Amino acid sequence: MDRFLIKLERFSAWILLILVILYIISGYGITKGIIDPVFSKYLHDKLLAIPFFIFFVLHVGIASRYALMRWGVFKTAKSANIYTIIFSLALLILFFWFYFL
């Protein structure tokens, strides 16, 4: 299970890097016109937001689980898993609440 989580965390980090680069390009497309401003706004506001936050929560949740276990905050993997699930779900709910307001 740990090996899978580490691979998932690294995969989400690479996807996040690609999404951040696309966010930067679409932001410059909106403000500087390097690509079509209408497409840039659609990409920036509608298309990238949900995948970005899903991979962000995935990356931060798993990485914080391992960091807190390494620092001795959690003694067992079960308590760390419960924390990760609650923290990740709270972030996802908060994001979707703000996104769909």
TrEMBL record:
Domain of life: Bacteria
Keywords assigned: Membrane, Transmembrane, Transmembrane helix
Sequence intervals crossing the membrane: 12-35, 47-68, 80-100
UniProt name for this protein: Uncharacterized protein
